[in-house]
User: Fold this.
Amino acid sequence: MSGEIIQLERQGDVFTLTMNAGENRWNTTFVRAFAAALDEVEASSGPAALVTASASEKFFSNGLDLDWVQDPSAHPEAGDRQAFGKEFMALMGRIITLPVPTVCAVNGHAFGAGFMSALCHDVRMMRADRGFLCANEMQLGMRIPQPELALFRHKMSLNAFFETVQLAKRWAAPAALDAGIVQHIADLDELLAAAQAKAQELAPLGANRENYGGQKETLYGENATINGVHGPAYMLKNPQHFGH
Assistant:
């Protein structure tokens, strides 16, 4: 429906989730609508992939709903303020381990929580000529929570990570591509189609949900392989100690 804040459509093996709330700021209502769309994706079977996009030409997602955070009672439509932190973080963890390939079409600004949500996808594509990726907590006088720092560290090189979280660097598309934060850039009128084409290419990997999601858990979940206490040389010499 055109009035819904989260829209989900399926064409072939590709689901397209469109955020349709203007600046797409994150509050509890938005989190729950997004989660409901993921429920539908996960309830499907066979080859599948997800594209996340925005209906706005200027914003992918402008971060937290700060007006609501500062005065929840004035914005009851945004939902339960007390539930937000845990539910938002859980949703980000769900996206990063979703058992189908995920492609993010970043068409405009992605700040704070919006940047986080983009990073949780397997592949990121970004509008070439406009928009910034930025974790602007330092500019707002806020500390970045450890789970969010871990997400950023997993998804970018150490130097790009430091510039992002400590120096609040604003990444335009060409620099983000050079840094490996996004994998592809495109003109706005080509971006969504490029993301959907990539999702269609990757969709067969999603046919085996247990395998695709299971390896993501190994990469990003409890006792993650890339954060293990042992180096790869030890692990290669002692494979009997390390299962899936």
Observations:
- The first strand starts at residue 6 and ends at 11.
